[in-house]
Amino acid sequence: MGFMDFLGGGIVEAVGKVADDLITSDEERAEKENEKLKTNLSHKVEMAKLGIEDKKLREQAEVMALKISREFVVKYDSFEGVDEVLEIVKNAR
User: Which tens digit of pLDDT belongs to each residue from 23-78?
Assistant: First the structure.
């Protein structure tokens, strides 16, 4: 094996290693980007779930408020004013 064979083989080997490193780096970058996208999507899904849950809780609170209001009107047909209403609500807790 002569010097030129060694030099040529070394260059080919070096170029092959650089190409391999670049390909690996591209694969790793793609994998990291994929992980970021999955994390971002997962976060958006969780936020959507929370939004739906919040909406359900608000709807339940509205229904509860309507029921309480109806019961209040039936039970306390007449009252003196806001202070009396606040006192009744406070005592109901």
Answer: 767 778 788 889 999 998 999 999 899 899 999 998 988 888 888 777 777 776 66
Report the amino acid identity of residue 92: A
Q: Model-level pTM?
A: 0.43
Q: How many helices (H) and strands (E) does the chain have?
A: 2, 0
Q: How many residues are recorded in the chain?
A: 93
Give the closest residue to 72 by CA, choosing from 62, 61, 60, 84.
84
Q: Which DSSP state fits 69?
A: H
As a whole number of angstroms, the distance between CA 36 and CA 27 comes to 14
Query: Residue 79 is encoded by which pair of tokens?
Result: 């009252």
